[in-house]
Queue: 2 jobs
Job 1
Amino acid sequence: MKHHTRAALPATVLLLLAIASGCSAPAGDTLARDWRLTVNGTTEKVITLQEVRALPSVTGHGYCVSTTGARFGPYTCRGVDLRDIAALAGGIGPGQQAWVSAPDGYLWVFDADQLDGKDFVTFDENLKEIPSPPLRIILMYEQNGKPLSYDDGGPARIAIVSEQPGVITEGSAWVKWVDRIEIREG
Amino acid sequence: MVLAGTSFFSGCQSPAPVTLKIIAAGSLLYPFAEAEQEFEASHQGVDVQVEGHGSIQVIRQVTDLHRTADVLAVADESLVPDLMYRPMEGSDRNFTDGYTPFATNEMVIAYTEKSRYHEEITHENWPDILARPDVRVGFSNPMLDAAGYRSLMVLQLAEEEYGDPGLFERVISDHFPSTVRVRETGGTTVISLPEIMRPSDDHVVIRDGSIYLISLLEAGGIDYAIEYRSVAEAMNLSYLPLPASINLGSAEYADQYRKVTVELGFPRFSTLGRERVGRPVVYAMTIPANAPNPGLAREFIDYVANESLAGRPGWPAPLARGVSR
């Protein structure tokens, strides 16, 4: 009993400190419940995570690298093809772009060719450039079989996936914490 | 406090190591890897951890992503006041109120023995060589890397320096599907970029960061890369220095550099607009107000600033001693 009390004390201190410091990462269930995605095209639609999960899903291998060479992954990524998300607000046509943004102020733009998986630079695990296999851009909500955590960009982020493992793509396009997708003329 | 408490209960005998978190621009990773080893050797129990990003992302780790760090080091001093001289959320303290400029750099044309025409490239003929149809020129993505928009500025400034008004068009614009536009406005040349930097042929090659350009250069995938001098030196590449009036490395030419602006295709970060104005390259370090180890951070900054003054190989060039803002 005494042992338990000792072990519990530092944990209590840690918990109180975390509360006092306003520890910012929200719990997963709250994240998922409160999250909304706005899709703006010829119409505008606001959807919940549950509604995203109800769309046809894509599962693939995802692996990315930062501008300075730090690798993230490999992951098994599950989500919805961005074209299917765009379709909720009128779809995306040739010459149009998807502007994908997040509440942290980050924005990335994809054009229709990229939404078809074209024109990405791909690398092998040694960061040597390789010809690109077929790729898909998805709004990922599940990583390695688990709901995407806040630290990994959850509840939903962009991932570029392939059926082939070990294919690395440039990480700047993997927008975290996505909450808005806007279809615009290019 | 938590560490002390935990040590008490676990009966730890030696003090826990202190982690000094440094977030630095990509072009500083080579010098900071050396500084990390040297600082740790002279500071027992200190574990220096260096993490690299583009300069804006370096600052955003603290301001927008709410991470803590002891030192932020960027390749453009103007980013510190622009992005950090504002109050932290829930506090009346700014993210920082000052910074230490400690080094400069200049843009060069890097190449290898595999580069086409490397035996004939000179200070006089490089614009013509870079424009030759069988030559492939690389630079990093201006959306992601200051070296990218600075490369475009250098080529535009070279038009006046070399009396060659078609240079930028021949080397860059002609190789995009009418999406890179140049206009004059009030004595400034504005280079306007598209949302997606996709060349229409393989004369121009764009990659997210220096490391990918350099791998391509070494593999013969491109012939020339516009790069920082320190990066070319750190990677043992051959390079052609450029005149001070265009290389963005001299404070004396600040007025000249200011004549070029790059307008990015979209505001990647809501905290910073689309415009990048030509100015001398000045690296800066700052200690965020909520840094866990501000005293050690100051020691690290002083160490790097002093070492920079020595002009070490692969490090950005020294600035004048004792500058602080």
Job 2
Amino acid sequence: MSTVVKIPTAETPNYLTEERGILSWLLTTDHKRIGLLYLASVTFFFFIGGIFALLMRLELATPETDLVSPHTYNELFSMHGIIMVWFFLIPSIPNTLGNFLIPMMIGAKDLAYPKLNLASWYIYMFGGIVALYSMARGGVDTGWTFYTPFSTIYSNTYVVGAALGIFISGFASILTGLNFIATIHCMRAPGLTWFKLPLFVWSHYATSIIFVLATPILAVVLLMIAVERIFQVGIFSASLGGDPVLFQHMFWFYSHPAVYIMVLPGMAVISELVAAFSRKRIFGYTFVAYASVSIAVIGFLVWGHHMFVAGTSVYSAMYFSLLSYAVAVPSAIKVFNWTATLYKGSISWDTPMLYAIGFIGLFTIGGMTGLFLAALGVDVHVTDTYFVVAHFHYIMVGGTIMAFLGGMHYWWPKISGRMYPEGISKLSALTVFLGFNLTFFPQFVLGYLGMPRRYAAYPPEFQTLHVLSTAGATILGAGYLMPLIYFFWSWHYGPIAPPNPWRATGLEWRTPSPPPKHNFEVTPVVTQKAYDYDAMKEELGLV
Amino acid sequence: MSNPQQLMLREQYGTPEQQRESVTFGMWIFLATEVMFFGGLFMAFTVYRVLYPLGFDEGSKDMSIVLGSINTAVLITSSLTMALAIHSASMAKLKRASFLLLTTAFIGLVFLAIKFTEYYQHYEAHKAPGVWFESSSPHANAMELFYVFYFAMTGLHAIHMIIGITLVVIFAVRAYCGSFNSEYHTPLEALGLYWHFVDIVWVFLFAIFYISGLHT
């Protein structure tokens, strides 16, 4: 990899060296430092959730329940889901990369409400500690979906504690979304109109809308579960007059848009990566921008496709099926436009690009199988099987985590001021890709053959596929450990990074690496559209 | 001497204009969240009201329309004093703004006092849901659901009131100390938005819990 050395910036203090000491981190209002606080926390939760996953896969290596009891297995998949969804995936990209980059991409000194930003981290950590504490006390066995009446009447585990942890951390999401929306509206640099914004910002804007409008419904429904358990009343218990299906409606009214909370930021990263490593403006920029917003809007109208077998009316099922197809359209627009951007681009295969290409392939598979599930007849056949498990892992792990890692590699020079080692990082990208496919592709087959999810034991004829999946999970785990190790190494020993190692457009690359506390020496004035590689050829040294 | 506006400009903003816009805008977004928060409960309430019209009607007939109406009037009055406080601040009459804010907080406390009196009456009448609930009505389960929503929704509203009153008192002190001026009192305006929102929620709560059972 060749780099352009522009200005030496080592002497001037940056956001990492400006202040020192643990308190300067814990009380910081700098969006970049808060991004790093979040990065450390989500990484911690990712590995906790990963350990649960690994234990599940080990148990599933044999058809019998030998490693853990069925009850423990129930707790393992529940806690894996809760930790991964609410304490890793949802905050992963928005609160780390989004926090770090949005103010820089729009030429602002900080987010609109820096104190609220710090408050959101504390709220998130508090929620996480409550959830972990209830897990340490004995865990929860309802699945991450908390379906009633099991969660309200029959489960004897720490449902209220886990729900409370999620309830609390929900407010962190709301504050983040609120902060992003206000920032993107009010804090843009002079000249930076909406259609000059990087697509990263557009996608995070769409994510924030969901944060703000969907999360309160989750808060309400978890509150109702807690009230029902604590006061022994029958909000969702059929025997006391309650309606268990109402819970599913309210839960999925949040949790389906939450899927887009998880994947839209991934798309945000991919748009940046594909443009930077193809040296081209994103094909159909406006379409991709509007696609983000329409995913957020249509995403609110499709929750019923999780309930085709829950006894809802056939007409509502048809409506939800149709709209679920509709939400695939903007996603497909994005995939086609990224692919079209590659066409005749000057492509370089740096590590972030490997992750980006991996994302596009895996997201496509995940999205297409989502269409299978939106089809009423097919869904009835594969509901609650490994097919569903494989589908959403292709979106969340193959999509979001690939994008997260790709983004981490791409912006690592900006965050740390150091380059990561190129060779091993390419190896890690390949390992993650191969390990992921080996883990989850067999699960499509398993599900189609009838293996239900959430069981610790299974008929012996499924063993081959399960063993393949477990082997893949081991490789995947190793793939995730590699970046953890070499990022730590690079933080201290990596080669010094120039301000713009990728020769990319974007305001974040026009400030030193790492950036100074207030991001820019002078507030930039924006005259060019986003990703204008043709116009900036000479400035970027691309000729 | 530097411009007083500049003194209040937080470091992340470029101009006072931008700060004013961001603060108000942020409060509106927060209120959107709040609408969804209460909206979820209103939706669930409506579902059960449609499922159990008789039980919910019976529950609604137990409500004291007198206390409810008085409370509605009390709360709307507090919205008036809040609006006057903001007006005074914009006229740079900070002492008066401070006094009006304290009045607002006091009226808020009167509302809570009446509300908690009602709660106590329901408790005495064995209408508090859960182990305390007793009813010989054929619609006992549905009535209990009515009371679950009644306590949950008015309770959440009361929590919002308590937060609001605390903030109003803090802002009264800040106004008294001269933290605002006629040019910059945006945080006070944002607090006003919050206060009016909480009032409006009560108007809807009054309608669904008290008025809906008024027919003969």
